[in-house]
Amino acid sequence: MLRPVECAACGNQVLCEKFSPAHTQVQWTDEAAAVCPRIGERVAAGELSARVRSCDALRGSIAAAVASGALEAGHG
What we know:
- This protein starts with a strand and ends in an 8-residue tail after the last helix.
- It is built from 3 helices and 3 strands.
- By secondary structure, it is an alpha+beta fold.
- The chain has helices at residues 32-35, 37-44, 56-68, and strands spanning 3-6, 13-20, 23-28.
């Protein structure tokens, strides 16, 4: 089941499902380059938005959600 996770750096919210420790599905609720300042910077610098899947701050927030039990691997 997808669960909301908020980025601690910018406040953007994505939906996540953790299938295993190595596999995380992230569903953006809005255009990533428009709502994430770090992804927006990379796109503005010429990187293709389809190649920018996430940012370190969001990955950290997802890891914190797993560590707190808010997002459980294999349990949805």
